Amino acid sequence: MNETIEVLIGEEEISRRVKEIGAQITKDYAGKAVTLLGTLKGGVIFLADLAREIKLDVFMEFIKVSSYGNESESAGKVKLEYPEKADLAGKHIIIVEDIVDMGYTASWLCNYLHGLNPASVKLCALLNKPERRKVKGVEIEYLGFTIPDEFVVGYGLDYAQKYRCLPYVGKLRME
Fold first, then answer.
1. Which residues contact 8 (CB under 8 A, 6 or more apart)?
2. Which of 26, 29, 99, 121 is most enclosed, with most CB atoms within 10 A?
3. Which is it for strands 152-153 and 169-174: parallel, antiparallel or unpaired?
4. How many alpha carbons fall within 13 Å on the CB side of residue 4?
5. Which residues are identified as catalytic?
């Protein structure tokens, strides 16, 4: 099987949007520290670039959750894989996701984090696929791009652990 990638969102467009999101977070949280909670593994590249654009005290934590297991379609059940406990009480948390599609993981994370008594919880996602949404009420306060229902890779997103380090987001085609 041959795999080809068609650029959907270029490197310069991503860089420009990450700067804009960083500036908005800096404005919204002026005078406060924020904790970026990166979702492993897909959100790491976005989180690293975003953290450099926020002109505040930025702390980083990571969490690994899964709703897919070994399947290509979500099972709809979210499992916390790492860490089991995090000290996030009283902190301004911004969840940094690579993509929100069905909404299971984003919804679960927001509910889970509210139970840890943070000062606030907001969701930041590089990509949004609203056509695939199964969970209603998922609010993305800081959004990079809304995309069509295509299978995408690059800038943290993978296919079988490949293509994460591409500097752009592209549509993966299997031929």
1. 147, 150, 152, 168, 169, 170, 171
2. 99
3. antiparallel
4. 3
5. 101
Distance CA 4, CA 36 (A): 33
Contact indicator for 124, 106 with CB cutoff of 8 Å: no
94 touches 112 (CB < 8 A): no
pTM for the complete prediction?
A: 0.89
Print burial letters for 52-67: b (CB count within 10 Å at least 16), e (below 16). ebbebebeeebbebbb
Alpha carbon dihedral 69, 73, 77, 79, in 10-degree steps, equals 30
* Cα dist from 137 to 31, 54, 111, 130, 143, whole Å: 29, 27, 12, 11, 15
Q: Could you read off the pLDDT of 30-43 as tens digits, one per residue?
A: 999 999 999 989 99
Cα end-to-end distance, the chain, whole Å = 6
Rounded Cα gap, residues 27 and 55, in angstroms: 9
The set of residues, in sequence order, having a beta carbon less than 8 Å from that of 154 and lying 6+ positions away, is 5, 163, 164, 166, 167, 168, 169, 170
